[in-house]
Amino acid sequence: MAGDTPVPLRRRLFSRGSWAETSRVSEILRKETVGGVILLVAAAAALVWANSPWSASYFALRDLEVGSDVLGLHLNLTLGVWAADGLLAIFFFVVGLELKREFVAGDLRDPSRAALPIAAAVGGMAVPALIFVAINAGTGDGALRGWAIPTATDIAFAVAVLAVIATHLPSALRTFLLTLAVVDDLLAITVIAVFYSEKINLVALAATLIPLGLFALCVQRRIRSWWLLIPLAVITWVLMHESGVHATVAGVLLGFMVPVLRSEAAGGPDAGPGLAEHFEHRLRPISAGFAIPVFAFFAAGVGIGGLDGLGRALTDPITLGIIAGLVLGKPLGIVLTTRVLSTVTRAKLDPSLRWIDVFGMSLLAGIGFTVSLLIGDLAFGMGSERDEFVKIGVLSGSLLAACLAAVVLLTRNATYRRICEEETVDEDRDGVPDVYQRRND
């Protein structure tokens, strides 16, 4: 009878994922928190040095040229460029690994789960870009080249702030933040490759496929020999740099080549770490503890020039566009996209959460740093006056977004604590919280 037909449960937004995925994400966020703290220290040190009586030595160090144009390759670069092009390739390699794991072995292999963070990331990039363009329209002199600056989220910076202001964040939102930031990074590197690459050298770009293909062949055969993989990765990076496509793209492509098997991700009594997990375990500390902080040290140093200089920067359309994009555009884009998606799919927010929680997380996504500074360098040139305005805009916007997120999330921390206590109950002592063994009704 029609009356006996069971009514399907309505899909929930930000519902709990699997315990295995939640544990993995929690471990990643703990590592990112440490990296974020180091990042903040590096950025603060750069700002202090760049505005001290010894500021000339800071800029001399940043602009010190190292390398040579051997074999016709343009590798005579400043330390600042080496950090942006070389060290960040390590960061994007880890991004490539994480993104592939999410969609092959993580909860996001389910298209219905993947749709939300992907849509939110797209909305969180589109609205800030539109706001920047609206503020800078008609200013001329190539100001619109910076349209992508306020579109990126810095996961390490955001998680470091999160660790301080909200100690009991629900696992579903932590997963959402991490996944959104990873997808955000992928979209950002795509924007860099398409819109901020210089004149393309097709010969060098085609030659990139040779070491990249050999690297892929090695990792598909589970070869872990560093003396073979590292030279192939370096050659791929050098040829990508020579091609005119931003060299960090090589990091993402190399990360995508590493195989991820669901059986390896699931683990088991006799299962060792998969190759992607092995590389991520080895390289994430290098990325978070060295590569990103060194880049931040060379990218965040800006001579403010006293109150007059700061006032002039804060009234410039580029600075205003970046601040408005990060503080207003990011949360608007993410929340509006999420609400639209929930309306279209008729999905309801998980009962343990409120929309104010989503809004607080979206404010955290407005903390842009690493990729935003990178795009600013590419858009206006490192050391230019507009590049200085970019740095002030990114730092000011990120600080303001962090403060607003703190106001919202601190008021919700008691609720987070209650949810966390519920999730960690393990009456049968099997190592898995009971909430992950019950159906999400």
Automatic annotation (TrEMBL):
> What transmembrane ranges does the database entry give?
33-51, 71-94, 114-135, 147-169, 176-196, 202-219, 226-241, 247-265, 286-306, 318-337, 358-380, 392-410
Top-level taxonomic group: Bacteria
For this protein, the record's InterPro entries field holds: Na/H_antiporter_dom_sf, NhaA
Please name the PANTHER family in this protein's record: NA(+)_H(+) ANTIPORTER NHAA, SODIUM ION/PROTON ANTIPORTER NHAA-RELATED
Protein's name according to its UniProt entry: Na(+)/H(+) antiporter NhaA
> Is-annotated flag, keyword Transport?
yes
Q: How does it sit in the membrane?
A: Multi-pass membrane protein
